[in-house]
Amino acid sequence: MRQREHLTPYGNKPMVTPIVQSVNYEYVSFEILRQITDGEIDGYTYHRDDNPTCRAVEKEIALMEGGVDCVVCTSGMAALTMIFFTYLKAGDHLLTFHDVYGANYKVSLILEKFGVEVTWLDAAEPEKIAENIKENTRMIFCETPSNPLVKVVDIKALRKLADKAGAMLVVDNTFATPYHQLPLSLGADLVIHSATKGLGGHNDLMAGAIACVTKEQYDELWFTRQAIGTTLDPFPASLLERGLKTFEVRAAKMAENAMAMAKFLSKHPKITRICYPGLPNDPGYKTAKKQMHKGFGGVLAFDVGRTQNQAKRFVEKLKVIYHAVSLGCTETLVCLPVLTTMLYLPEERRTLFGVKPNTVRLSAGIEPIERLIDDLKQALQ
């Protein structure tokens, strides 16, 4: 369907959306220019405004998330920052959760510099959300499952609380992906992705995406992107579209592998804690079972032994699984969040909400599960 916009002179449709590298476009007529600038047609004038390759990817992600439209940009953090800059102002209150990607802490410092009040809560204590909503609460932002402890937040419950305050609800769906979870259908106003991760899936691109419920949201976020220049380059957009072609197959296999590794690790004597919403004894299992489908995602976290040195030795002994940041790709990856993704946080905050010095985050890839289990076994010996 998306290739119909790229016909050859003979009406043939390319199987791959062309990479349109042009920065600017020749105007065929002043009338066409008027229609573009007035928003009557989906036309192109300058790359910072829009690009045909990027637009094809946006429409595909919007369809996957059940949104009206989508805005892609240079990274997941760019996407989140665009949302904050578009919908928050001095005097507003943002309610968010400790257990989110560590770079969000840096963005919160910028928001506070501009007069936005930020409250951090533990996703494992949903009862505290209502008592922390204020008259000036304008946005609730969460990741579910969260990074790195895969805590699950009830999206429908957050929607009810957001409605009482007249606040927006923004959900980061990077861990779950639209294969497992559709936050817009559960009440979210906007869904954000680090498309670098599961949507792209091959460690070869960086991109962000925001799926919108309304055309008005798309226009507002488009304005911010155009103003600050976070438009995605067409080459990574092309790689992202290629990744989307195998997305469902990869997402299914990653979830299958994650579940198998979670079950194995949950029974191993050297694993002192495991976090995965697919395990029936996980605190987030009931909520995840209710709002996620086709599985529980490809990321889990666990504590190795009692000390960081024990966790380090485990990582160093791995032979198949890679020691690297990022997630959602074809290779299985592990990292210690306190030394990587949570390094941005002040030391006293890193363990405040459950991340320990010996906590390991694992992102399942698509390798044969027997190889992965054998690798975990030998590394834990």
- The oligomeric state is single chain
- Specify the helix fraction band: 25-40%
CATH architecture of the largest domain: 3-Layer(aba) Sandwich
Tally of separate helices? 14
Which characteristics define this entry?
381 residues, alpha/beta, Aspartate Aminotransferase, domain 2, Aspartate Aminotransferase, domain 1, 2 domains, 7-stranded mixed beta sheet, 5-stranded mixed beta sheet, globular
Walk me through this protein's architecture.
With 381 residues, the protein is α/β, with parallel strands linked by helices. The protein has two domains: 2-245, Type I PLP-dependent aspartate aminotransferase-like (Major domain) (Aspartate Aminotransferase, domain 2, 3-Layer(aba) Sandwich); 247-380, Aspartate Aminotransferase, domain 1 (Alpha-Beta Complex). It is 38% helix and 15% strand. The chain has a seven-stranded mixed beta sheet, sandwiched between helices. α2 packs parallel to α9, α3 (76-87) crosses α8 (215-228) and α10 (247-266) runs parallel beside α14. The longest helix has 20 residues, at 247-266. The radius of gyration is 21 Å and the shape is globular.
